[in-house]
Amino acid sequence: MSCSTCHVVLGEDSVAQLDPPCEAEPDMLDLAYEPTETSRLGCQIKMSKSIDGITVTIPAGVNNLWGWKVQPR
Q1: Is residue 62 part of a domain?
Q2: What is the pLDDT of residues 10-33, one digit of tens each?
Q3: What distance in Å separates the CA atoms of residue 19 and residue 31, rounded to the nearest whole number?
Q4: Is the pLDDT of residue 63 over 60?
Q5: How far is Cα 68 from Cα 26, in angstroms, rounded to an integer?
Q6: What pLDDT, on the 0 to 100 scale, is given for residue 50?
């Protein structure tokens, strides 16, 4: 965790399924593009079957290097 380029916005129900962020994550999110109450750093989300189906949105104003089609929120 050394930047905020993996900033994602989670759905309300999805946030409740994740472990709480570590102490440093909110500080890194302060550097992200338009963070919200449900913002997390994607690099800190541990993938598991228990979170299958969560809703993750990439903020529309981020620099999209992969060519993904991002829907404005």
Answers
A1: no
A2: 999 999 999 999 999 999 999 998
A3: 21
A4: yes
A5: 26
A6: 92
Cα–Cα dist 14/54, whole Å:
5
- Helix H, strand E, coil C: the string for 33-66 is CCCCCCEEEHHHCCCCHHHCCCCEECCCCCCCCC
Instruction: Supply the pTM of this predicted model.
Output: 0.79
Domain that holds residue 49: 7-57
What CATH number is given to the structural domain containing 17? 3.10.20.30
Q: How many CB atoms lie within 10 A of CB 55?
A: 13
The number of angstroms, rounded, from the C-alpha of 10 to the middle of its chain's C-alpha atoms is 6
For residues 32 and 53, give the distance between their C-alpha atoms in angstroms, rounded to a whole number. Answer: 24
Residues 6+ apart with CB under 8 A from 12: 38
